[in-house]
TrEMBL record:
UniProt keywords, alphabetically: Oxidoreductase
Recorded GO MF terms: 3-oxoacyl-[acyl-carrier-protein] reductase (NADPH) activity
Record lineage: Bacteria, Pseudomonadati, Pseudomonadota, Alphaproteobacteria, Hyphomicrobiales
Family the entry assigns: Belongs to the short-chain dehydrogenases/reductases (SDR) family.
Name assigned to this protein: 3-oxoacyl-[acyl-carrier protein] reductase
Gene3D superfamilies according to UniProt: NAD(P)-binding Rossmann-like Domain (3.40.50.720)
Coiled-coil segments: none
EC number annotated for this UniProt entry: 1.1.1.100
InterPro entries listed in its UniProt record: NAD(P)-bd_dom_sf, SDR, SDR_fam
First-level EC class: oxidoreductase
Length: 262
């Protein structure tokens, strides 16, 4: 299938590794020009070299930290300088530290709200006028399956990410008439460094081995295994595509059937 995004300009947040990097690779494979964003300049540069070596879409990068007060200004300036505008925005952020509701101090709530919610919304608002003017745009926000089924010991994530779900759904209705789709993609257990960290934390908390934790988790996934970054990225690329123009306001799971909700 031709996704119809060759030459489209895409910004992928938190794309030095993991899901963000996987999405950047998938979009570039389809011929999109991608702007990677993150806190590791060396890793971002290495990623861009690898993507450019494939000879499809071109890749560039910028250093930007979602926890930085100047994040939105830095990113919007780079988008204008390098691309002159934007067609595809993939909102992605690292997850907060594990913990219970009692671990949620006001300081932690404020810190993670700024980086995971407020700056994502502010950046999107800053880039929307250009998409409206050209009559085409894709906004995809990566969150977590905890949005629909809270995950044990991830109280901060379970609290903050659903705020983005409400925002994304509201925004979808407001911008659909401008040719802009707005969706959320929810990963389940996808093999990334973040998942390694969470499994390690669960092992420490329960006294079990990491291998036992993974075996137990995989047994609860109907597909019977953890997902691959490439599988998740393929779903993301489709939602950013031209053929997906009638999908908006949706909250889509990529979790191997793990969530028990309808």
């Amino acid at each position: 299938m031709d996704l119809g995004i060759k030459g489209k300009r895409a910004l992928i947040l938190a794309s030095s590794r993991g899901l963000g990097l996987g999405i950047a690779k998938a979009l570039a494979q389809e011929g999109a020009n991608v702007l990677l964003c993150g806190r590791s300049g060396e890793q971002l540069e290495t990623n861009c070299k690898a993507i450019n070596a494939q000879g499809n879409g071109k890749a560039d990068w910028i250093w930007a930290d979602l926890s930085d007060d100047n994040f939105v200004q830095t990113v919007t300036g780079a988008v204008q300088e390098k691309f002159g505008g934007l067609d595809i925005l993939v909102n992605n952020s690292g997850g907060p530290t594990p913990g219970t509701t009692e671990d949620m101090t006001p300081e932690k709530l404020e810190t993670y709200f700024l980086s995971m919610v407020a700056r994502v919304i502010t950046l999107t608002n800053a880039l929307l006028p250009g998409m409206k003017a050209q009559g085409w745009g894709r906004i995809l926000t990566i969150a977590s399956s905890g949005v629909i089924e809270p995950i044990a010991n991830l109280a901060l994530s379970n609290t903050l990410r659903p705020a983005l779900a409400g925002w994304s759904k509201t925004l979808a209705s407001e911008v659909a008439g401008h040719g802009i789709t707005t969706n959320m993609l929810l990963p389940g257990s996808i093999l990334t460094a973040r998942l390694d960290d969470l499994d390690g934390a669960a092992a420490k908390r329960t006294g079990k081995s990491v291998e036992d934790i993974r075996t137990e988790k995989e047994a609860r996934i109907p597909v019977g295994r953890y997902g691959k970054v490439e599988e998740f990225a393929a779903a993301a690329a489709f939602l950013c595509s031209q053929p997906a123009s009638y999908i908006t306001g949706s909250l889509i799971r990529c979790d191997g059937g793990a969530a028990r909700s309808v």
